[in-house]
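Loading example: each entry is read as two labelled lines plus one structure line.
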Amino acid sequence: DVKVTQSSRYLVKRTGEKVFLECVQDMDHENMFWYRQDPGLGLRLIYFSYDVKMKEKGDIPEGYSVSREKKERFSLILESASTNQTSMYLCASSRPGSGEQYFGPGTRLTVT
Amino acid sequence: AQSVAQPEDQVNVAEGNPLTVKCTYSVSGNPYLFWYVQYPNRGLQFLLKYITGDNLVKGSYGFEAEFNKSQTSFHLKKPSALVSDSALYFCAVRDGGGRRALTFGSGTRLQVQP
């Protein structure tokens, strides 16, 4: 059974903290993605990666960075958390050319 | 650029009645189209996709979707709704020859009343 796991389901951080969100997939997928989900806005793409050490900016990359040192792991980094980054963060993976993405359960991040 | 519109924030339907959740898209090349469902406190689950071929595609849980190129639509349908179908539904598109990532719509909440 395919699996995408995220390091935390719930996270509370203070403004200005550096935050790491981890995502691991066990399907040997080349592509991995980070989205944030906000009510009424759907899913918005933050960053994606199509290979180890490769990354591309999505639609809303400001305030975020990513790291992909190993094929199975894709990390999202909030360099200095702000309250407008309070959101649900979803990680996904897919095979090249497929389009069909497999999602993790999400991390609900609250920045106070 | 690629974009998706889901014009309805919420759709209400009685159990046993047919349901339709609407989606229109815009891409510059050939569209790859997807529907995902999100149950409460869960991640998104893939329902079905259209890449090429028959305009009517069938997916999980009895759902189907009809690709209409002239209307640039990909509406999700089910002949007989169940209360357990109540969830948040997302349409997504990708340009088959372009960007690798999907663009998602804003989501439509489906409420099926007993």
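The two ends of chain A are 37 Å apart (CA to CA).
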